[in-house]
């Protein structure tokens, strides 16, 4: 039964939470702009090679230096219309409902000073057990993964319930949408619960690099509501850059070299907030974020003994941004 794994995991998470928050609070402003040492960067067991569809070409700009230095365009993935209009509206409605229940009012600043005028929450009900950390631990230990604690009537036999009380009216349908995202990647990746980031019209995300100790190899998001320009610059040479026009319904991911060698940002600077010579108006936007968890050195099977899985989960919750 996965319940034993899950309970042990919760204990480990509590034990590691205080120490990890202390570590992150001490993170300096400049350190978020520093490229990590290569030995600190997570490496996937299989290559991540996502190819953007041809429809993405008008929404991606690579600098001359990016191509001249030999960086791969596949390090950035963009799918402009990954979801349809009906799915977009359902996600907006559901994200707003979760934010009203789980998040406070818009916050003016975060402890790392990299994001302003935002609110956020994590929605564990949208992540199937089999895809999360607990599911990977159970599989590594040769145990079955429990049924998910969410009612999915469209997957249950006709006239029967899955045996759980519904957590949210549309959670089952949202799971179907999000499984298309996770299905783009190799199955060995363990995913953190989806993270809802609501950025106010006047909000911004300043340039930063995620902490590699507590993040996995890929990060990306489904873009809802307003359009934004996201910029990725090499930490040591800002002339090496990629710009994305993130329109509603689009899905993007960064991985490989861009993941930990480039800063990423969504700026409020009017000079950067333009595309094709036309200004992009400020707009309220929501990003539904996806991150994989950093696999412990001993694999998921040894993570309960070391507590490393709990440290990864707790730390990643504090480190999730754009």
Automatic annotation (TrEMBL):
Record region (Disordered): 23-42, 299-322
Gene3D superfamilies reported for this sequence: Alpha-ketoglutarate-dependent dioxygenase AlkB-like
InterPro entries, per the entry: AlkB-like_sf, ALKBH7-like
GO biological process, alphabetically ordered: DNA damage response; fatty acid metabolic process
One Gene Ontology cellular component: mitochondrial matrix
Biased composition (Low complexity): 305-315
Top-rank lineage group of the source organism: Eukaryota
Protein name per its UniProtKB record: Alpha-ketoglutarate-dependent dioxygenase AlkB-like domain-containing protein
